[in-house]
Amino acid sequence: MKVGIALPNAVPRATGAELIEWARRADARGFSTLGTIDRVVYDNYEPLIALAGAAAVTERIGLCTSVLLAPLRPNPVDLAKKALSLNALSGGRFTLGLGLGGREDDYEVSGIETEGRGKRFDAMLERMREIWDGDEVGPSAGEPPRLVIGGGVDASFARAARFGDGWIAAGSPPDQYAPMAEKAKAAWSEAGREGGPHLMGLAYFALGDDAEAKAQESLGDYYAWLGEDIANYIIGSAAKDAETAERYVSEFAEAGCGELIFCPSSSDPAQVDLLADAAGL
Q1: Looking at residue 101, what DSSP letter applies?
Q2: How confident is the model at residue 173, as a pLDDT?
Q3: Are the C-beta atoms of 32 and 3 separated by less than 8 Å?
Q4: Radius of gyration of the chain (CA)
Q5: Cα separation values, 281 from 28, 29, 94, 143, 275, Å
Q6: Domains located in the chain, CATH noted
Q7: Considering all CA atoms of the chain, what is the largest pairwise distance in Å, rounded to the nearest integer?
Q8: Looking at residues 142-147, what average pLDDT do you find?
Q9: Cα–Cα dist 174/159, whole Å
Q10: pLDDT for 101-124, tens place per residue?
């Protein structure tokens, strides 16, 4: 299993300098991918812009929106062109991960209805595939990015099998990941796709002396909208020591994950080295 790390683009008060140094260190330490988390009504950096900055200061590491909230960018031609551009600029290192998102305030501030978003998402994906299969919209240099679809409901697995190259789970422990991965593979087979989907997952982490405080602060704020009980569950599931991070690598691999992206609770670039050491990179 490949091990990636997300940029701290959704850690409140993260600076641009921290994101750039984070990207450089992740590239040097051997992580497979730099991921990003998406929101609108939050103290975060827009994922495609953050990854474009990371692409400029890295050479080999992959770039992935894990995930981008597609219905909040309702022009599929524009999104397809941006994805083509980022993939070309990075030398083919970009994976476009797309999902629906669950925050009503993100939709409200964007002036977009939540009702019917699944059907609109399907239409977007169909149009984006048409754009990538044609030559009307450039840049013409390079190929379209790999496309993975996020979500944990049956429609997400079917969507990934119909339009995508793979599937990605939201942050969840390994025991919850395994049955979802099986559903993704089953949907792939039912759709008549050859081979198997690229299976990706997310896990949260905070390492070092203040790991618990960082997880409480960042994840508690990000998931406060789900209520205290769920937020505390997510905080509790984060890897807060090297042993847990190492165990997650092993257990996600056993659960069928092909690439695991660890998402940070701190924007301190030292976290990159701590996780690399814990993951054996």
Answers
A1: -
A2: 85
A3: yes
A4: 18
A5: 10, 7, 22, 29, 9
A6: 2-278 (3.20.20.30)
A7: 53
A8: 95
A9: 23
A10: 989 999 999 999 999 999 999 999
Q: Which pair of tokens denotes residue 158?
A: 């079917």
* CB proximity list for 194: less than 8 A, separation 6 or greater: none
Q: Which residue has the tokens 């609770």?
A: 265
Phi, then psi, of 222 in degrees rounded to 5:
-65, -35
Q: Against a cut of 0.90, is the pTM above it? A: yes
Output the six-digit token pair for 179: 């049955």
Q: What's the distance, Cα to Cα, between the start and end of the chain in Å?
A: 12
Peptide bond connecting 145 to the previous residue in cis, omega within 30 degrees of 0: no
| Residue type, position 9, single letter | N
Contacts (Cβ under 8 Å, ≥6 apart) of 196? 185, 188
Calpha distance 173→237 (Å, rounded)? 7
Q: Compute the distance between CA of residue 228 and CA of residue 188 in angstroms, rounded to an integer.
A: 36
Amino acid (one-letter) located at 265: S
**What backbone torsions phi and psi does residue 113 show, to the nearest 5 degrees?**
-75, 140
Q: Are 131 and 100 in contact (CB under 8 A)?
A: no
Tokens 């092993």 locate to 250
CA distance 77 to 80: 5
